[in-house]
Design brief:
There is one protein chain. By secondary structure, this protein is mainly alpha-helical. Helices cover 38% and strands 9% of the residues. It has one domain: Rossmann fold. The chain has a three-stranded parallel sheet with strand order 1-2-3, with helices on one face. The chain is globular. 26% of the residues are buried. The C terminus is likely disordered. It comes from Amycolatopsis carbonis. InterPro entries: AB_hydrolase_1, AB_hydrolase_fold, AB_hydrolase_sf. One of its GO terms (molecular function) is monoacylglycerol lipase activity.
């Protein structure tokens, strides 16, 4: 949440150096993307529209992007998919708690608040990118009812990495 294509500033070039063509679309309501109606299905359909018939060897989705990728994977048909801390299988209580936490981030007015939340774990340049992307996001895109999303299994999963209980999902 509150991320955009700038989040891939390290991984994108590393994959390109290994011969991959890298596409890093902003989900609707994030970064430079248009605003509009927001739901996991809308984000997935946007991915399908953006990527089109492009052959995908490797698809990587983080957080909300992981949820959108999981929904779109059957249409995109990547050879392999990697999900980084995907926003899957949330209980109703987790959904409410997560929404409240992310909504609170929108009240921040100083980068120091983000630095404190992340506990000094991020390099200063990455922190600055994250702060900028926070303000490119439409607050209305904070997901609602994410726990209601039902995913069809995708059989070519390369990896799923989830955040630890104290990381807060960053």
């Amino acid at each position: 949440m509150f991320g955009d294509s700038a989040s891939w500033h390290r991984l994108g070039p590393a994959l390109a150096d290994r011969g991959y063509t890298v596409l890093a679309p902003d989900l609707r309501g994030h970064g430079a993307s248009p605003r509009g109606r927001y739901s996991p299905t809308d984000w997935a359909l946007d991915l399908v529209d953006t990527v089109g018939a492009t052959k995908i060897d490797l698809a990587v989705g983080h957080s909300l992007g992981g949820l959108a990728l999981a929904i779109a994977a059957h249409a995109l048909r990547p050879s392999s998919a990697v999900y980084l801390d995907p926003a899957w299988r949330m209980t109703a209580e987790q959904d409410v708690r997560s929404r409240a936490e992310w909504t609170a981030w929108l009240e921040w007015t100083e980068p120091a608040q983000l630095r404190e939340r992340l506990g000094g774990r991020w390099p200063e340049a990455d922190l600055a990118l994250r702060w900028e992307s926070l303000w490119r996001m439409d607050p209305a895109a904070t997901p609602r009812d994410g726990h209601r999303c039902r995913l069809r299994p995708f059989t070519r999963v390369g990896a799923v990495a989830v955040a630890g209980p104290r990381s807060g999902g960053e």
